[in-house]
Amino acid sequence: MTTKKDIIKQDIRSNIVNGLIIPGQRLPSIRKQSEKYECSLNTIISVYQELEREFLIYSRPKSGYFVVAKEALLPLIDKKRIDFSAAAPDPTSVPQMNLRQCLNKAMELFEASIFTYTDPQGLLSLRQEIVRLFQQQQVFTSEQHLFVFSGAQQALHLLAGMAFPNGKANILVEQPTYWGMLSALKAQNQTVIGIERTPEGIDWAALERHFQSNTIKFFYTIPRFHNPLGTSYTAEEKQRLAELAKAYDVYIVEDDYLADLETNTKEDPIWSYGCASHVIYLRSFSKVMLPGLRLAAATVPHALIPLLRLHKQTADLSTSVLSQGVLEIYIKSGMYDHHAKQMRVLYNQRMNQLRGAVRSLLPLESRYSIECSGGVFAAIHLLDINTRELIQRLASRGVDLFSTEEQFLSHFPKKNLLRLSIMRTSEHDIEEGIGIIAEELEHAKQQANSAPTPFIWV
Ligand SMILES: Cc1ncc(COP(=O)(O)O)c(C=O)c1O
């Protein structure tokens, strides 16, 4: 059975391994830790002693405990696969202790609601908190327009199958795009049209033609830190999308799944460009918190509310009250903001490191290009290298990558894209993994005869 001591030890250990407490840094005092983890001084002493025996920390008389030097740390980090494929947070980066406390508190505070069914739009008290949270992204809405969903995936599934006030039937999606949306559309036999999105953006003339065709119910877009490209639309592009949506009465489903990772406070969503009447603004709580909570929220135009309420109710009556309670307590206590900030710092460090590793380790090549802007994903575009073979070779060397085949519509011309995720990597993984990728790209080059002409996007 996992004891409280095990959980505390795992928490501190993962903070060290993930670089949240850096080599040489002094660990919080035993008293502070016992307050933080609400346990006895002896429990913390015992945890510190065990971490010391594992050579992760050392004690200095009268000064406290310190993290060992980086070089000493490396061999101690569990030898595992290098995971560039994950789309879910690293369990060790999630504040499990805090969430457990919120869960206990939610059992107490929401006892009455747990024993009954609640509003299909979500707990009113949580929606009020989310209204405030959305304001940080310049989305000024009200709890009447807000829906809590059992994950962004549920919202996408329901929107895909629902009639819209514009009376149009087809759905336009970026290519490539989030695979879960494509499978929701396929499962519901929707007519889907693809429009290419590259690191440079989309073809505006083609987009306008589609909007003009008078058949598009909504355009599904991931404007920020696109999955899988990793890129974002500029402010001008978002403004243009907002204008076109209004002009042609096309709705936009704006999947802002990584809004919490934005470091530039001037980057606002499409919603904020004066088109609240045509944008469904959607946020997932899976990427900085836990996918297991199954929580997302959206603000929707007034005209959509009654039908969406009905669809949501027929799907699951309501989202789990316990999960909603945990999120509400987490936001209200300030822990959400604090944790989101930590994740922003952590993921940004990793993205910077990835950018550095790509620049220094991958040679300039005509046979691939790589884009890594921010968020959690970067994409390698292989021009004439066999993707499957490369993925297999990398897997046999302990490096896992995600092929983006599933991120294209079956009838759309596929690009040879590999998605790199930094969510479950460490500094060490990134350097080592990019080194191995560089070697395998070199191997692929030697196998082929074509002469390279250099170019690279970074
Ligand atoms: C772009 C995008 N949207 C939505 C989702 C689904 O999120 P949720 O876990 O909230 O259902 C994902 C999951 O990876 C995603 O990448």
Main β-sheet, spatial strand arrangement: 4-11-10-9-8-5-6-7
* DSSP strand content: 15-25%
Mean pLDDT: 89
Model regions low in confidence, pLDDT < 50 over at least 5 residues: 451-458
Helical residue percent? Answer: 40-55%
Fold blueprint:
Layout: H1 4-17, H2 30-36, H3 41-53, E1 57-60, E2 64-67, H4 70-73, E3 82-83, H5 96-109, H6 111-114, H7 124-135, E4 146-149, H8 152-161, E5 170-175, H9 179-187, E6 192-198, E7 201-202, H10 204-212, E8 216-221, H11 235-248, E9 251-255, E10 279-284, E11 296-299, H12 305-316, H13 321-332, H14 335-361, E12 368-371, E13 377-382, H15 387-396, E14 399-400, E15 402-403, E16 417-421, H16 427-447
Parallel strand pairs: 3-14, 5-6, 5-8, 8-9, 9-10
Antiparallel strand pairs: 1-2, 4-11, 6-7, 10-11, 12-13, 13-16, 15-16
Helix pairs in contact: 1-3, 2-3, 5-13, 7-13, 8-9, 14-16
Bound molecules: pyridoxal-5'-phosphate (PLP).
Tell me about this structure:
The chain is α/β, with parallel strands linked by helices. The chain has three domains: 70 residues, Orthogonal Bundle (Arc Repressor Mutant, subunit A); 237 residues, 3-Layer(aba) Sandwich (Aspartate Aminotransferase, domain 2); 110 residues, Aspartate Aminotransferase, domain 1. It contains 16 helices and 16 strands. The strands form four sheets. An eight-stranded mixed sheet has the order 4-11-10-9-8-5-6-7, sandwiched between helices. It has a four-stranded antiparallel sheet with strand order 12-13-16-15, covered by helices on one side. Strand 8, helix 11 and strand 9 form a beta-alpha-beta unit. Helix 14 packs parallel to helix 16. The protein is globular and about 75 Å long. Pyridoxal-5'-phosphate (PLP) binds next to helix 8.
